[in-house]
Amino acid sequence: MKSDIVVVGGGASGLMAAYAAADCLVGAGSGAQVLLLEKMPRPARKIMITGKGRCNFTNVKDWTDFSSHLRANAAAVRPAFYNLTPEALMRFFDEFGMKSVVERGDRAFPESHLASDVVDTLVLACNSKGVKIMCGAEVSSAGRRGEKFRLELASGESCECAKLVLATGGLSYPATGSTGDGYAWAEAFGHGVVRTFPSLTALVPVGYKQPAGPDPALPRHVDRAVPLAELGEKLCGVHLKNVGMSLEVDGNTVDSEFGDVDFTDGGIEGPLGFRFSRRAVKALLNGGRAALVLDLKSAVGEEELSERVRQLYSEIESDPRSQRIREKERCRILLGKLMPWDLIPGFTAMHPRIFFVSRLRNGRQLVKVNLDVIARALKNWRFPLDGYVGYERAVVTAGGVSIDGIVPKSMESRLVPGLYFCGELLDIDADTGGYNLHSAFATGALAGLNAAKALLAAGA
Length: 460
Hints:
The protein is of the alpha+beta class. It has two domains: 5-198 and 394-457, FAD/NAD(P)-binding domain (3-Layer(bba) Sandwich); 202-393, no CATH class. 34% of the residues lie in helices and 25% in strands. It contains 14 helices and 23 strands. A six-stranded antiparallel sheet has the order 12-19-16-13-14-15. Strands 6-2-1-10-23 form a five-stranded parallel sheet, with helices on one face. Strands 3-5-4 form a three-stranded antiparallel sheet. Helix 1 links the parallel strand 1 (5-8) and strand 2. The longest helix is centred in the last third of the chain and has 23 residues, at 435-457. It starts with a strand and ends with a helix.
């Protein structure tokens, strides 16, 4: 097979790169061909599961706010962002028939809230510009032969092209086809690869999962399929809104935020869990200690909260309905006034010092409630971390092809002319909220555009 431009990888960045390249060529009146090779039976499998199938495809913040959510190499994304802004991306989808809506946190979704609409629109856009999409076309190796790039396919076929765009993605959600193929090819071309690790993933507290054997490839990795322990069973399914959380690394608080938290079958997730996951995973991989600290009452200080707890308990004790119930049941009523009911079993399990036994003169034992412990625990509920869920369910891969070898204004290799990189394959990752997908679309669009421009400049 021969083509002028080949894009390897049919995800968000690859489809956008193919479209941008073909759009530029068609606009210039060129008959040059763009070929997209995707190893899975259908393109953009990962987009289909983004945002629980709703696909938060961008975030409409301006660059100053947007860039604050990029966790690596924000400056390298800047040219791509301005080449394809969030507003321009929404116009692109609108022009091909997909309406968008902007929701809380400046997150943009397809109006239908169906990720399949994003995929269908991208494929439609590529088809409208004559892009040839080949699915089931797994590339086994990529190299250079003279002035051309040569790709060997698992089927035994080969392909040559003048310009090559690598958009193979990272390692997260390998079932969608992201198995890190592009890293080895990048290294073969002379590019460095920054150590990769899972990000935007569940953090697993000590005692949350049943014991499992170690993973030598990823220290502290706890596979999502490992069954929950008793503590995990008590917390799984709890959703907390508007709480405070901080991350401790080796005993020092390194980050604090306010927002929502989810306890799932994987561990601690939700916006706050995901936000801290990158730094926590990196600390654990480096042999450090990490803990999440939950503040259920961040609007009040501990002294004021302690007084409030005592006042509530006094009201419960003086209530005639409480006279015949045990102290533990009174404590449960108290906790029900301070937190969601479904959180109480996990809270009491992790704070056994809430109760203490007092011995009477006659030898009887009386269970009492330690109100000071409750107040402190509400403000400082610590979850030492045992590990994290790996690539099998991590939203994004941190690390990747080093930006040092890439020209940010074009996404072209500094080492190999005609070679371009984009998307999650690069050492670029961000918070949850549309930032990662937009970065993929934007870097893909810039890579494809410049591959086409270089082809035209060469006389194609």
